UniProtKB/TrEMBL annotation:
Annotated ranges, domain DOC: 1-119
Cellular compartments per GO CC: anaphase-promoting complex
Top-rank lineage group of the source organism: Eukaryota
GO BP, sorted A to Z: anaphase-promoting complex-dependent catabolic process; cell division; protein K11-linked ubiquitination
Keywords assigned: Cell cycle, Cell division, Mitosis, Ubl conjugation pathway
Name the record gives this protein: Anaphase-promoting complex subunit 10
């Protein structure tokens, strides 16, 4: 999602999109996963249904790659993680990396389980 101003903590991304505060741009990207169990892939990760989700199926690290076809400015990234619902499978660390290709990614932000992820 992109936004001209800082998104308030705890804001509902769908409400912000309806009001024109943010614009969903994920559909402009190619999404890939390091692994997934059948029926728990990119479609479930992106379907806006909180009852469906991505479930990895392999060794760590578990990765979600989002590649845009051209340079794209992303000012806000919204991630829904429900620690109370399934603590054992919710990530303890989320790393946000950017770059021109997969081989030159640089970490720009890390969130740990104890931190509030909404920025």
């Amino acid at each position: 999602m992109t936004t001209p101003n800082k998104t308030p903590p705890g804001a509902d991304p769908k409400q912000l999109e309806r009001t024109g505060t943010v614009r969903e741009i994920g559909s402009q990207a190619v999404w890939s996963l390091s692994s997934c169990k059948p029926g728990f892939g990119v479609d479930q990760l992106r379907d806006d249904n909180l009852e469906t989700y991505w479930q990895s199926d392999g060794s760590q690290p578990h990765l979600v790659n989002i590649q845009f076809r051209r340079k794209t400015t992303v000012k806000t990234l919204c991630i829904y993680a429900d620690y109370k619902s399934d603590e054992s499978y919710t990530p303890s660390k989320i790393s946000v990396r950017v770059g021109n290709n997969f081989h030159n990614l640089q970490e720009i932000r890390t969130y740990r389980k104890s931190q509030r992820i909404v920025q």
